[in-house]
Amino acid sequence: MALSFGVTVLPDPPYQRLVELMVLGEQNGFEIGWTYDSHVLWQDSFPLLTLAAQATSTMRFGHLVTNPGTREPTVLASLYATLHDISDGRMVMGIGRGDSARRYIGQPPVRVAEFETALRMIKPFMNGEEVHWNDKDLQLKWVRPELPEIEMWVAGYGPKALAVAGRVGDGVIIQLADPEIIQWIMGTARAAADEAGRDPDALKCIVCAPSHVSDDMADARDQTRWFPAMVSNHVKDLIERYGTDGSVVPKALTDYVEARKFYDYDDHSRVGAAHGEFVTDEICDRFSVLGNVEQITTKLRELESIGVDHYSIYLMTHGQEETLAAYGEHIIPGFKGVTS
Fold it and tell me: Are the C-beta atoms of 112 and 104 separated by less than 8 Å?
């Protein structure tokens, strides 16, 4: 199957901006519109996705990512089911344990066991099935049975979270575009799927990372240093648990974090964030999708060749309209067997 494309837009005010960029994304061939779900750092994302769904006709929508901690699981399932109705079946759930949404309000990410329990309920519940939750039998009886199933794509980096993705998810969300790390992540998740009696090959691979289309690589890297710094929040947690010897988590993921000094959530996903200063050019190139059209196409072909199903641009760089237009005109058509 050909690589599909998505775009991730921050729910930053003015709220009209997210809708505008999603409409532009749809016009340029992007199939899924994503946003963050960090309700204090940015505006609440659910009303914004409702507006985006109403302004578009084919684009699917979801979060990269929501979580079952700040969103009570039955509330989260109902929100998605409601948006699925409003959008006429165009929702896909991206869900993780919670990073900025949780840490910023003084709460840790949801514990892995609790995370898995919630996911096992949310998936059938938002799709209209009866579930047993809090000693109650519950059902969203208003879910339209003719709509396609809402898929659940699960984010994770460490072995335990990736095992949950393999056992429960329809896909794995990976916040980086480094082929070596992607293959390790998918191998870990697929081993858990196989052990659970699921088809490991049915597990989709979703990669999200910034992209900047330019011949000026120095500028492209500077636009995206914030991204490996953001990923390092998760890597620090893995290092505390598993160390850095490469026996559990590959050194390709842990080594670059050694130079990190701090992280400021007030600059979360912002170009020029001071906490990104430690990120080297090499890491920028590995983790993001940078360069001119030819360089970007080559990297995306490599991702496609290792089994990536969907690539979403984190559109938190300058020249957002230009990025969408360059992909729509020069890059996406090549992955659909159409020459531009």
Answer: no
